[in-house]
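[Archive record]
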Amino acid sequence: MFEFVMTEEQKLLRDEAREMAKWVPREYILDMDADKIKYPKEYLQECGRRNLIGLRVPKEYGGRGLKWEDDIIALEELGVNGYIFVCTYGVTGDVVPEAIVHFGTEEQKKKYLPPICKAEKFAAECLTEPRGGSDFFGSTTMAVQDGSDFVLNGQKRFIVGGEGADYFLVYAKTNPEGGPANSMTCFMVEREMGVKTEYLYGLMGCRGGGTARVVFDNVRVPKENVIGEVNGAFPIFYQMMIPERFGTAAMTIGSVRPALEIATDYSMKRKAFGQTINNFQGVSFKIADAVIKLDTCRALMYSTARAVDTGADPSLCRRLVSEGKKFVTEQCWDVANLGMQVMGGIGYTDIYPLEKIVRDMRLSMIWVGSNEIMQLIVQHEWYTARKKELKNNSKRESEFDCISAFAEGEKIYE
């Protein structure tokens, strides 16, 4: 943790999150990984009792009114129990409330936010469909207006919290002939309206998070459950990139940190050739690489949090958030593998949690937008920013700082 950048209040929040992480019984973690626990309601309820859910939700709706700089501190500490703990925590406490806080009506805020923050109700976001995930605006889930209701039909899959959630933030086509900016609507759908969970998936890792296929079969949703405007899901989707992708990156750091800590401790105990293996550079340099990776990840997360919290240029924020999701998850994946490599064969067994951490970390590079989609966004925002710089002539043109910069016939572009 970067304690040197924290205020006293943030240190207290960190300690609260650490105590919450310590509260979780060992058996609970094992039962989730064994799919004996389908969704961690008891864990989330304890977070709710400690007022740790919805940290950025305004106080008048049950949250703490904090910023991303605070949230990522808690995410790192809560992540040490396992990636799926913060996945479920983040979806119900960060992602879904983001849409309601920024785009919901006053009535929607009063109805949905307090029970979510108290963990009396749980929420899930429904994006991915059986036909695809990254092509968000190609959604085939439809909502047709019928009087004062919308009739919702379609399926969403790989939904964390699909089994267990009470509220579902659902995106559906309401204007099939429209383009991305005016074809979809965001709804808050309640399970009791007729939402069905078809089955749970057999996952490689991140088990126990209620990941399921969610089915909407002629589900009637009142018009007052529209979040934002009809056919106006476009700005909501872009706002949601922040908690989905930035939150995902931040929580990954805490979830992989135990791999570094366990491997470090092991290297100071395990002996080979008459000395502990941390005395061999082949081992200690791997630990050093892992430390560098996590510290670099934290630096990117803290600077991105500052950008988002202070209202930096939206294009820059999109770029930083996307950079963070790709860079941090890939570095954390490396950290998990470095930890296993340090430990050797024993790390490949269930004697230590390294094998579980490796299984869990693989999800981070896939969900809430694959890392390839992150590259697509980064390059777009970078090229856009560079074109503006060239147009404004705001920087030195370093291209010409060489001897033959103006040689005739050499710079050929066609």
